[in-house]
Amino acid sequence: MLLLNATFEPLTALPLRRAVVLVVCGKAEVVHGDPAGVSLHAASVAVPVPSVIRLSTYVRVPYRAKVPLTRAGLMHRDHYRCAYCGGRAETIDHVIPRSRGGPHAWENCVACCAKCNHRKADRLLSELGWRLRVVPRAPHGPHWRLLAHSGDADPLWRPYLGAPAA
Predict the structure, then answer these.
(1) Within this chain, do residues 41 and 108 fall inside the same structural domain, yes or no?
(2) Which of 47, 52, 91, 161 is 20 to 30 Å from 27 by CA-CA measure?
(3) Which of 44-48, 143-147, 159-163 holds the top average pLDDT?
(4) CA-only gyration radius of the chain, Å
(5) Which domain holds residue 6?
(6) Kindly report the CA angle at 161 between 50 and 82, in degrees rounded to 5?
(7) Lowest mean pLDDT among 42-46, 51-55, 97-101, 157-161
């Protein structure tokens, strides 16, 4: 479920249970329900299963210039593809190994399959003759954090997310 601020600015993705609690307690309203028209029924109330909800009161969100590096975010950035062979990524690899002074940063971390990660070990790409398929960069965009943790976004969310995340 997508949670919007009172100004229709996207805040985060929520589990269904938390979204329903916000709606039932009057802290949020349903903007878009489930396209199938499914409702949750209790003894005295029926609540449509929400896809998008909006808070009743505005919540100030602190500005963060940098997107924090997380496993989920890195896998989303690299589309779950190995930076070396293009296969399905399962692990994270430091391009310049940490044992050789490489930082734990967006620009030095890539998604990697277990086979390539094991073969590379703590060596540099130049020692193996390997090249990166794409140069790793820090992600950007106003809604990047939201999409990194929500997996594939519901099509009903598109009008509220604006431009696609990078």
Answers:
(1) no
(2) 161
(3) 44-48
(4) 20
(5) 1-59
(6) 105
(7) 157-161
